[in-house]
Design brief:
homodimer, alpha+beta, Arc Repressor Mutant, subunit A, SH3 type barrels, six-stranded antiparallel beta sheet, globular, DNA-binding
Amino acid sequence: MTNKLNLNNLTKSEEDYLKAIFQLLIEDASVKVGNNQLADYLKVSPASTNNMIKKLKAKGYVVSEKYGKLDLTERGKSVAVRLIRKHRLWETFLCNYLNFTWDEVHDVAEQLEHIKSRKLIDELDRFMDFPKKDPHGEMIPNANGEYSIIPKITLSSLSEGDVCQLVAVNDGSVHFLKYVSEIGLVLSSEIKILEVREFDKSIRIKFDNTIETVTRKFADNVFVNKVV
Amino acid sequence: MTNKLNLNNLTKSEEDYLKAIFQLLIEDASVKVGNNQLADYLKVSPASTNNMIKKLKAKGYVVSEKYGKLDLTERGKSVAVRLIRKHRLWETFLCNYLNFTWDEVHDVAEQLEHIKSRKLIDELDRFMDFPKKDPHGEMIPNANGEYSIIPKITLSSLSEGDVCQLVAVNDGSVHFLKYVSEIGLVLSSEIKILEVREFDKSIRIKFDNTIETVTRKFADNVFVNKVV
DNA sequence: TTAATTTGTTAGTCATAACTAACTTTTTTA
DNA sequence: TAAAAAAGTTAGTTATGACTAACAAATTAA
């Protein structure tokens, strides 16, 4: 009964876990990423993540000590970045060539990112002329896994009178993405903060002659460049 | 312990089985398609196919009697045709837009055909302007699952002096497809049968000022339109 | 600093889909 | 038509990746 470790060909699940750990690590760089948090993020039980973490440790993708925080090895990171590259390239393709909207791309890209073919993704990249950003404004890693992380500030971090430009939106929720489109915001929209209400931190914003009030939660998911 | 039957969302495996049965049924319309034959085709054990057949029968995709031949219900056929549509559209995309060659497309298309998104495939179809044939010359079913079956004759069925045009090639083997490309045959190539050798049924053919001898096995996998 | 809460782990179960080995039915052929 | 071969079936096992329930460790709060 020798336990064969499939070192090279990762399953869809293994890939999903590695990507999730990576996302959690960059989301909150300094804070501990733990087992339950991962379970929560992936919407599975803590027992499931615990199990998978063991396997990924044995395969050399993850490091952690018992009851300790999770981290990825270089190999683990490399897998995660390649998945993100695939995900974002597919999203770009779906939006720019196949008439998908922001809120429609995520689910399909989640499937497409697991297709195993180096040539496929590199040719898709070339076909689209090596796009730098995906439709939500996020950076696309290149074929060598290199990418720049632009420090992101949220709309919620600004103050009355500030003017900013929408550079990216969090792509985690279909409802949120639909909402963003519906009120008329697009990448590069110039947004002026008219008022930040002390009571509930809701924000009155103006863009393209539209005035809207958005919640703190909404503003937390909108990433901007401060202009003024 | 109520046995929940996942009637709508088929697994990758279930889809593979339905497609395989469909392919075997159209390959040899009149001949019985049996359990062992299916196992052989899918390169799994007869026990595995037997098991899966039971499940697909319970779900209403397959019909067969104990020890009898296999057949698909309308629903089963519909699933298979949609898979073939997806497979062929992806192959077309890979060849025409992403620089894939004949022999490279199959494996990737096998993965891509399982992506679940109606919009994805219909938009891909539109993007390529509704192609009628895939790169190997096979018909692509339309969005309603309609397609025409062109009765195919093989190069091996012709006689000395006949002239034909290459209309399709069997896409089952990478080695075969590489071979076809290497000797210089492409879709629409005009081929003249110079000689059929009685000894081993090998055939001397001429096309584009090239003269080649091909085996019976090779000629069985080349589909043509007889011109003269 | 002890108790409560949160977080992490283990053990055992289930479904899917593969496998081998043994057995039964059907078909072929001698 | 009876024996041999081929085809089909069943039983029992394995790996993956979920799950629940029970338990242990670590952290937080009283």
